[in-house]
Write the structure tokens for this entry.
Amino acid sequence: MKVLILGLGGAVARRVALGLHERGHTVIGIDTRPWKEAPRGIEMHTVDLRKRAAEDVFRTRRPDAVVHMATVTSLRVQGEERHRINLGGTRVVFEHCRTYGVKHALFIGRHTFYGAAPDSALYHTEDEPPKELASFPELADLVAADLYASTALWRTPELATSVLRVCYTLGPSAQGTLATFLRGRRVPLVAGYDPLFQFMHEDDVASAIVLAVEKRPRGVFNVAGPQPLPLSVIVREAQRVPAPLPMAVLRQLIGRFGLPRLPPGALYHLQYPIVVDARAFQAATGFTHRYNEVQTVQSFLDAHPTPPSHREQLRHKLETLGVVKS
Amino acid sequence: MSRSEVKERLERLELPFNAYGVDPYGVSRWHLGVIYEALTFFYRHYFRVRCHGIEHVPARGRGMLVGNHSGGVAVDGMMVIASCFLEADPPRLAQGMAEKFVNAMPLASIWSSRCGQFPGLPENATRLLEEERLLLVFPEGARGTAKLYPQRYDLVDFGTGFMRLALKTRTPIIPFGFLGGGAAIPTVANLYGLGKALGMPYVPVTPYLLPLPLPVPLEIHYSEPMVFEGTGNEEDTVIQGYVEQVKARIADIIDQRRSERWREAEKP
């Protein structure tokens, strides 16, 4: 099968590409970020998805399946540009799929779509609407892109569409929302709250996407692996320093003193859980995860040990300069 | 004594804890240990709870404990949870369907969820029952805890959601009567305005002002399981009829036990 992966520069997308390549599929990729060490046999096009050159790839290579992973998750990219990438890009992808006879389109979305709220069900199912979006407008474009992709199920019935809402990823690459959040030495928590976080190893996410490409399930599916863990447990096991702060204080300090930068709406995700029920995906594809929650956290820790404290860093610099002796 | 007993019973609690001592719903073995130690003290020594009919609580598999509210704060729920842990064999975790405000409050949010007490949503309840858990339901809701001292043995209207859920999931209902909570927290008024300001339905007021429970003996009486046939999509009148049967059973338990106590008191 000829598979076109959009957003091949990402860590998970690369794992998907390698997985598909290993299984004998022809893999083509598009991203503005080059992949210099791409293995032979994976065709990489360093172009913008919304430009004519990307359409040429669709027109000339005629893929059987398209995996759309070219959405921006990072909350650092804001405003018009983010909307253009996530919404405009998704629209372009489905237009090209229809025009050039693609048989199967996969949209890789996020489980945060369901929103965090104190009165939410603990396990969300696929038929639930987005909640609490008003308190987290930064997510609006991702939700809109997800819903736009979902409408392809009835707008273009000849195109098999799979919308996968994947939980947080964690692993050696330290890419993704949760991994970025845990990367620093101190991890902010909202005092008095400890939500469950659901995450999967990067390799398991890639396996799930590869399986979805091959099984071609039509519909919207939550994708999850091992059981969720309380955020405090993840922080502790990742050997980070938890910094529980009252909400009012946290709002002021976020992005300073070594704490990660987060938009105000993201703080709700530090109070209330978003956990998804992935039974429908398991039933449709037979997917089972390989890494449990313990191994997943450990893989992140092995690749990214606790960063040294400021004092240790300063001491190391002084030792390097010969000011003090070890 | 109680610490080792709690530890031993915690080991026998049949929940799928992972290597970190957490189950798929976030229930934590460590948090349960702390809370059960405290509950054991209150159950055995402070309230001297007398529990009857614990054999009616299924040892394994789904079940719905349905009872009356008694007392202005959640003493009734906590003592029922303690009785299922301390009296049942093997011990069971009764998972309450808490009011939604609990999950929004700092600290209460952590402790309620780590101890398996989740917001009272049909989705949560259905899932827990399908996972063969034991659910604790007070169909009177917040109106039940708002009863003042003179109405402490009355039952207010029952909601019908629990019955539809039991029918849909084919869950046996284990009715229970809870006695003594009204005397433990003799509520003389409820401050609804203050409650709203604090994010709660109301704040109960006792003659000594604070809603702290008095060391009054409490009683829990479990009755035989009631099994109803249906799909949960029946007409309201049918569901209401079933609900009335459960309500009547609970009222009978309370009346019977109250008359027994009177007879005991009249004996020379």
The beta strands of chain B are 50-52, 63-67, 94-98, 118-119, 134-137, 173-179, 189-191, 203-205, 219-222. Chain B is about 45% helix and 15% strand. Residues 236-266 of chain B form the longest helix (31 residues). Chain B touches chain A at residues 18-20, 22-26, 28, 100-101, 103-107, 109-110, 113-114, 118-119, 121, 123-124, 127 (CB under 8 Å).
